[in-house]
Amino acid sequence: MNQPVPTVMLGFGAEQLGAVNAVLGDNANVIYQNREVREGLAQLVPLQPQAVLLFFSPDDIRLVLQFARRARHDAPNAALILVSTHESLEATREAVRLGARAVVVLGMDDRDLLSTFEQLRREVHETVATGTVVSFMGAKGGMGTTSIALNVASALAKDSRNRVLLMDFALFIGEVGVYLDMATPYTLGEYVRDIGRLTDDWIDERIPRHRTGFFVLSQPPEVNEIAAIEAHQIVAAVAASKRFFTHIILDAGAGISEASLGGINTSDMGIIITTQELPAIVSTGRRVNLLTQLHGDRTRIRVVVNRFQSKGATKARIEQYAGHGVSATVCNDYASMSRCIETGQLLLELAPDAEITTDISKLIRLFDDETTVETKTRKKLFGLF
Q1: CATH number of 132-366: 3.40.50.300, 3.20.20.60, 3.40.50.2300, 3.30.200.20?
Q2: Is this model's pTM higher than 0.85 or not?
């Protein structure tokens, strides 16, 4: 099935935005939108969308045509579409000169707009981002979210076909550098400002890489720098990353902020980490509702029970409180995980044959059918059973 068209929409008010979305339905994947066209144009280079929609009114046609020329320059492979509520001969002439895909009058040319996007879905652009984005969110604090996210990234990186980026989105409380016992001089704060410069070589030179193979973007060390990160920057950074990484793992922790929600909202899948304690189970239901509101699609949500043991709450009880099915469990291995935290190592380094390592590696199957997942089969006593 053809994928929705990665689309940037600039200059649209709420009413016009709603009208366009109603026409396009699931044919467009709006990766970025901004009512301020001038500000939004700065995101075209890193995002490299497949379609750029510019809204204009008769009063600002000349200014918007200047913006259109800039959009054509910064995103040359994108289908440029001018949208208005009124016909404009000047806009049509300029659109032809710029090589725009269409000039659309809402309410009159809706069928043409839909047909254009249906055609775009059938086209393949080399610049279209393909990386998979997966966010890990704790039902509450202390769920082991960061440990699982880090070990999933390590398991993904074990497959040489993968290029994996882990982003610390637990703003103000994130600590992936501490968990990994590694220096992270280049941080998320710098990354959101540098996305227009991204190339594979640039990434290799600047973003620190863990010894197991995945790249790491920790949160900035200064509170003021963290507070300066805005949601639209996060959205643009994640979208840009999809062009250079096969997988982007977002450690969102348990805290909620506008910026972290921006990252979670870009995810192809949101994984909620919980445990068998009643407060965690109740909080899981709240997180399910939150992700449902963000994604609008419950099929993109997974619930994983960490530290699972037979004497705790059953999967059925967790599902009853959470209002969502449990997709996987991770066994309770306090000793192995504690040694990892104490030594700054990951499970594949310290306990590659442990059951918990196998459980976490299997989580990849929740969102990726391509990566090779090596698991160990425990032998029964004397091999009799």
Answers
A1: 3.40.50.300
A2: no
